[in-house]
Structure formats: C-alpha cells, structure tokens
Amino acid sequence: MALARTSHVSQQRLANKAKYTQLHSEFYSTLISTILKEDQDLTLPLTPDSFLLSAQSGVVFCKLVNKISPGKINRFTTRNPNVYQKSENQRAAIDAAIELGCKAISFTPTSLIDGNLISTLGFTWQLLRLWLVKGINVHEKPQLKKLKQENESEENFSKLTVEQHLLRWFNYHLQIADPSRKITNFTTDLNDGSNYTVLLNHFFGDEVPLSLLNGDAHQRAGHVLTTALHKGAQTVVTAEQLVTEVDQFHLAFVASLFNLHDGLSQSNSNLAGFKSKIRHKEDEEDHEKEKIKRETELMNLKQEVEQLERAYSQLRKQKEEVETSLNQDEESKIRKIEELEGNIAELVLEKPAELCLLRVDEPDKVILSLFLTIQEARQIAKADIFSESDPYVIVRHFKPDGTQVAKWKTRFIDDSPNPVWNETMRISNIGMQDTIDISVWDYDSLTSNDFLGEVKLARNQIVNGMKEWYPLRYSSHSDRRTRLNITGDIKIEFDCYY
Which end of the chain is more exposed for a tag (fewer CB within 10 A), N or C? Predict the structure, then answer.
C-alpha cells in the first residue's frame, strides 16, 4: 500500500513537472516571438517545440542578447550552422549574457546544443528577465528613490535587486489601497489574484471592482489581465499562467504593470491622464483644444483669403477698365492706373504673401500654404499578435535633394483597423520638385513601431479641394516579411493656397 502511494505521488509530481514545463515553453516562445517579431532568420511565431529546436543552434540566444544590448555580439552564424558553429554561437551568447549580469549556472554550450531542457529553460529565462526589467533601475527611473526606507543608506538601497524594487513598489501602493495587505514573493502572494485586484482597483477604480475578491481566482485573473491589456500593458502572460505559483510569470506581469504606470513620479500621478502619459500619447483634452484651435485658424484664414481675393479682383478689374477706357486723356488715365497699382501694392504688402495671391488649381505652381487633413484609414494591417494595430500617421515634407524640411504626426488610435483622426496640418512652400511622404505606423511601447504602409505624393498630384482614398504602399521602411501584411487605404484632403 505504501509503495502504491509513493508511486502515485511520483506520477503526480511528473505530471505537474510536465505541466509547468509546457507553461514555461509556451510563455518563452510567445515572448520571444514578440521581441523578435521583425526578425528574418527565424520562423515566427515560435511554438514550444520550434523554440526548443531553435535554441539548440544558439541563434535565438544571440538575437536576444542583441535586443537587450544592441551590437553586443558582432558575429554569429544564422543560417544552418554546423556543430562547430552552434558551439561558437552558444559560447558567444553565454559570454555576452554573463557580461550583462546573467549567472552561468546549469548551462554550457554542450548542454544547450544537446537540448538539455533544464539548461535551455534556465538560460532562456535569464535573458528574458533582462529584457523584461530593462530600464527598471534608479538611473533610468529616479522616482524609485521614493521607495527608499527611512534610515536606509544609499549604499544598501543601491544594492537592491529589480525583484526587491518591484516588491517594494507593489507594497507601496497596497499600503495606500489596503494597509492590511503586503506581498513578500512572486508566487503564493500573487497567484490567487486578490492583491492584483486591489492594486488595479487603486489604479483604475471600478473598472476592477473589489467585488472580484468574492469570486474565484480564475475569474480575478481574467478580469485583471483584460483590464491591464486594455489600459496598454505590454505583456504576453495569460490568465492561466497568472493563477500558477511560477515566479517568472508574475515577475513579468508585475514589471509590465510598473512600466505601464509606476505611480511614483509627479508626471504620472494623475490617474485620469494615466494612459496617455504612460504611453506618450497626447492628452486627449489638450489635443481636442488644439484641434479646435487649428480648425478655427483654418476657417479664419479661408475667410480672410476670400476677402482679399475679392478686393484684389476688384482692383484688377478697375485697372483693366481704366486701361481700356477711351474717354479719358492719357495723363489722367496714367494717374488713375498708378493710384490703383499703389492700392494693389499696399494690399499685397499688408498681409503675408500666401494670403494675397489668388488661388488656382494649376499643378505647375508653387504651393505657398497647404492645409493637409488626415481624415481616416480603413482595413489597416494587424501588426500585433494579440490585438489590432494602434495606428498613427507621420507626414514629412522633402526637398528634391532628400532634405526633410518638416515633420508632423497624428495621435495614435488604440486597437483599430479603421482609425479616424481628422487632424489638419499646415505645410508651407511646396516647390515643383518637392514630395510629401505620408506613412502609417503601429505604435508599440515594448518594441519598435511597425511600418504599415505609405503614400508618396509629388507636387503635381496635389490639387486644391481634392479629397481621396489612397492605397497604402510598400517602401524602404518595410522588410520582406512585413510587405505581405501591408493593406488598407488612407483618406486625405487638400486645401491649397498658391
């Protein structure tokens, strides 16, 4: 009987080990696919099986190191490395990782090439940890000094690990929200989701209601994760992983919450403006005021131009009538013409040049002022794995020699394949050989922004009053993989003054 119980316990342990190994592999492969999503040498997204196979060549490790510290490894073999080249790749990755702060425990080039599961998962986690906590330090986040305890020396505070900083940060907010709560680890204190619920209720109020504390752990984890992602958290952790006692999953999620909103600095203490400040988005209220201001200026400018056009046209007409008049002597005619020309000159000098010249729709004239309105887009490509793109637009004005003379961009629209901006900019002095480059990008605070297509317009393609849909095209911004994903159109309106 005792032997049977021992056998059952052993089988249960093996089953639990297999389950957690699978969860680790899923998490690692998904996170690596997100970090290296623009890579051309790997077949992405990785699966748990393909991740373990690609790890044997050392390529994925070298690429992770270079994402953490660009250019750290100058040379490594990416295409079908032989056994010797695999060993070189692994050695280069291990040496670089040690320089970055990793500890060479339980893994060697040989164990990694052989696919030893403990070695592979251990080394992978050390690299992914460096990526996840990149930037969470006192040098880059001086607001962390707010977590320094009374009577604690600067020397001791500087020796704290990232994990210790994050535990203090979590408890700092728990102390405000519910002084009875405190966490001491990234395992049993977090896996039931109650402390996450209190923290996010502190940040977002009723969007994460405290009534969730009466539900089950899976319900809390799902609601907490959904809210965090909606608010802009950059994480690949799943609800299933959040209810485990695996510290890697919880460290990753807590780091993403810290990066989303640390709540320590004055610049992001206002929760009402929280998301825009954290994700570097323009404050919505300020943006709306600026938009109204631009629209008012544009309307006033149009009215002024129309008045000037009428005055200018009237003076020109009077001059023509005088010049063709047959009942006036030459001397009086000359005096009248000179008087009218003086009035015209005074009118022109009274205002900026772009307001005093008649508008025409001829494509061979220099545009003195172009009011370009980015209205909307449709069927934008999906650049993110877990959501739609967060598109924004960059407009650039280039001279014939490639010199950029002006740049402007819209706000980004969250999670939308059909974004609407309705934002107007003013571009001055567009010459006959100039071009306007209008490109669409996916905003991403975790990795580099993704190119989603562009429209290039020559001067002769810009016509006053035109309002058109333009298909998004490829350019030098797009690589071989992303070109296949570029879709959609953008609607642009032009109002020209010559």
Answer: N
pLDDT band at 363 (very low <50, low <70, confident <90, very high): very low
User: What is the structure's pLDDT at 179?
Assistant: 87
CA distance 219 to 221: 6
Please report, for residues 36, 190, 223, the alpha-carbon distance to residue 247 in angstroms, rounded to integers and kept in the order given. 23, 9, 20
| Spatial contact of 250 and 191, defined as CB atoms under 8 Å apart | yes
State which amino acid sits at residue 368.
Answer: L
Which tokens sit at 181?
């709560």
Distance separating alpha carbons of residues 283 and 232, to the nearest angstrom: 15
**Residues 67, 55: Cα–Cα separation, whole Å:** 16
Cα separation, 58 vs 47, whole angstroms? 17
DSSP letter assigned to residue 137: S
> How far is Cα of residue 468 from the mean position of the Cα atoms in its chain?
27
Sign for the CA dihedral angle at 325, 328, 333, 336 comes to: negative
- The DSSP code sequence of 430-446 is E-TT-EEEEEEEE--SS
Written as six digits, the tokens of 77 are: 């073999």
Rounded average pLDDT over 70-91: 88
Contact status, residue 436 vs residue 395, Cβ threshold 8 Å: yes
Pairing of strands 467-471, 450-458: unpaired
With CA atoms as reference, report the closest residue to 395 among 407, 377, 405, 413.
407
Single out the residue of 475, 468, 463 nearest to residue 490, CA to CA: 468
Per cent of the chain over pLDDT 70 is: 75
Write the burial class of residue 82 (CB in 10 Å: 0-12 exposed, 13-18 middle, 19+ buried): exposed
CB 460 within 8 A of CB 436: no
Do 94 and 123 touch, CB atoms closer than 8 A?
Answer: yes
Residue-averaged pLDDT of the chain: 79
Q: H/E/C letters for each residue in 470-494?
A: EECECCCCCCCCHHHHCCCEEEEEE
Q: What is the pLDDT of residue 391?
A: 92
**Residue 150 CB burial class (10 angstroms; 0-12, 13-18, ≥19):** exposed
DSSP 133: T
> Residue 390 to residues 283, 352, 381, 385, 414: CA-CA distances in angstroms?
16, 39, 10, 12, 5
